[in-house]
Amino acid sequence: MMVRRCLWSNGYRYRLHSKDLPGKPDIVLLKYKAVIFVHGCFWHRHGCKATATPLTNQEFWLKKFADTITRDKRNIQDLLDCGWRVAIVWECVLRGKKELPDIIATELVDWLHSELKLLSIPSSP
Ligand SMILES: [Zn+2]
Questions:
Q1: How far, in Å, CA of 66 to CA of 94, rounded?
Q2: How far, in Å, from the CA of 39 to the mean position of ligand 1?
Q3: Distance from the CA of 2 to the center of ligand 1, in angstroms?
Q4: Which of 34, 78, 86, 122 sits in a 20 to 30 Å window from 20, CA-based?
Q5: pTM to 2 decimals?
Q6: All structural domains of the chain with their residue ranges
Q7: Architecture of 2-121 per CATH?
Q8: pLDDT (average), residues 6-30
Q9: What percent of the chain has pLDDT over 90?
């Protein structure tokens, strides 16, 4: 929501949850041939503090996580193969914030105008 509001107020027009694209990206910016995912750190296994594995039912969780990681990788590769550029914003950089931090907004906008195929914010967990 924060990411959308920020892009919109800066004049970027987008579509939401495009069901016809791999992984159903949260935001699609057709003009820039770019998609943005906002990934929950727990489900998508960011590797940050929010990525702890539950102590019970570990077998279940590990299988579920492995499936998610495999699916995410395939979706991103499929998007790149189709000429899309992909940005992933991890939820931990947004936690507790009401508005998208300027530094992240700048990073996203710079990326939209760049040739870079893949962006991850933060770049490491
Ligand atoms: Zn994280």
A1: 25
A2: 8
A3: 16
A4: 122
A5: 0.90
A6: 2-121
A7: 3-Layer(aba) Sandwich (3.40)
A8: 85
A9: 74
